[in-house]
Amino acid sequence: MPKESYIPRLSALFRQYGYDGATLSKISEATGLGKASLYHHFPGGKDEMVESVLCYSASWLQENVLSLLAAEGAPEERLQNMCDRVNELYAGGAEPCLLAILQSGTGSDLRHAQIQATLAAWVEAIAAVLREAGWDAAIAQQRAEDALITIQGAVMVSFTLDNPAVFQRVMQSLPQVILKQP
Amino acid sequence: MPKESYIPRLSALFRQYGYDGATLSKISEATGLGKASLYHHFPGGKDEMVESVLCYSASWLQENVLSLLAAEGAPEERLQNMCDRVNELYAGGAEPCLLAILQSGTGSDLRHAQIQATLAAWVEAIAAVLREAGWDAAIAQQRAEDALITIQGAVMVSFTLDNPAVFQRVMQSLPQVILKQP
DNA sequence: TCCACTGTACCGATCGTTTGGTATACTGTC
DNA sequence: GACAGTATACCAAACGATCGGTACAGTGGA
Fold first, then answer.
1. Which of B139, B145, B158 to mutate to test the interface with A (most CBs of A within 10 A)?
2. Which of A71, A121, B5, B141 has the greatest count of CB atoms below 10 A from its CB?
3. pLDDT by residue (tens digit) across B86-144?
4. Contacts for B79-85: CB closer than 8 Å, 24+ residues apart
5. What are the phi and psi torsion angles at A60 (to 5°)?
6. How many domains does chain A have?
7. How far is CA B168 from the centre of its chain?
8. Which of the residues A156, A166, A168 would you substitute to probe the B interface, choosing the one with the greatest number of B C-beta atoms within 10 Å?
9. Average pLDDT for residues A112-141, to the nearest whole number?
10. How far is A40 from chain B (nearest CA, A)?
């Protein structure tokens, strides 16, 4: 089995337990692989596992979210498509954000940089849509940041309050809110 | 020394390293207490330490934020006071949120419930201000949730992007945004 | 025969926790 | 004031368990 096939299960583990909490025992159990096999696929150990997960997350985001933002269509429609994908990504507000969880805990600079780059790319993709919609570049940047703030905040609050309805409501109104005149 | 005097240092550790990452060795070093002494003050071990930290956080929030929301004055002024305190709480966007970090990782139900209650109280305090400002109860609830979403999202995004300016900008505009007509 | 892959057994280090104990200060009794 | 008793605060050392990681001998398909 190629090592890519284990990434989704690794992602789920890291998302649930965080970096320190996702022990090799849990990883071994979840993947069905012994430690030796894990180190065959990921010679760099746990660090390489989490790096692979982050790399996969970034490409998933690119293919499933950012590409939709860069596609053709009306700005509002594109933002709506993004929200739809984001909604599945966070299971409608029931699952926490992998990036948010992996940047806490034992802070590795490499991990932080990787997550930062992913988030920055996301902001830029939204900002591009807004510039295309006629907004000034500075305003577009601010609104794009606001959009990501809303998404990340909604995930955290919904998950903490055990109330996915909050996430649903926010995601539904997000496109109009971002595009609305000040 | 009373055990309360160690809470701030414990908070800082848990905020930086998370539950699993804040080992007893680090705690021992940071507090200057031997491991056995830590168990003298916190017989329940690490769980009691983090519970004490969460308890302290809740009371800090009550005394420094929620009390300002319940005080006299114009709604916008009270929300502004909240933002000022929140700004110091998160060091202007340079520090992550303790609650957000402690609810990830090895998930304890007790911890989750404690954090949930704290966040819910915060939402309710804001909603009360908005109701007092004349908003319908349902709308007030939504806007209060939006306010907390904005705060939590801004902390996460600012911290991840290493860009406190984002946090500053969002916090400055928050009172007007929340009170603005739809 | 080669090679990707895996199971077993092991390593040193560190985890959270406990034991057994010391030093100090504050009691009440004589 | 002297003295036994008690409570508080602290520590060094060690506990069993588990951590992340490694060595090595297979094993099965090409």
1. B145
2. B141
3. 999 999 999 999 999 998 766 678 899 999 999 999 999 999 999 999 999 999 999 99
4. B79/B126, B79/B129, B79/B147, B79/B174, B79/B175, B79/B178, B79/B179, B80/B175, B82/B126, B83/B171, B83/B172, B83/B174, B83/B175
5. -60, -45
6. 1
7. 17
8. A156
9. 97
10. 26
The CATH number of whichever domain residue A94 belongs to comes to 1.10.357.10
User: Does A141 fall in a domain?
Assistant: yes
B33 touches strand D (CB under 7 A): yes
Beta carbons of A120 and B21 less than 8 Å apart: no
Is residue B138's beta carbon less than 7 angstroms from any atom in nucleic acid strand D?
A: no
Say whether pTM exceeds 0.90: yes
> Strand C: which residues 2-21 of A lie within 7 A (CB)?
2
Compute the mean pLDDT over every residue in chain B, rounded to the nearest whole number.
Answer: 95
**DSSP code for B133:** T
Which domain does A163 fall in, by range? 55-179
Closest approach of A11 to chain B, Cα-based (Å): 13
Assess if residue A1 is contained within a domain.
Answer: no
Classify residue A77: in a domain, yes or no. yes
Residues A10-31 pLDDT 10s: 999 999 999 999 999 999 999 9
Distance B36 CA to C19 C1' (A): 10
- Is the CB of A7 inside 8 Å of chain B's CB atoms? no
Distance CA(B120)–CA(A161), nearest Å, equals 7
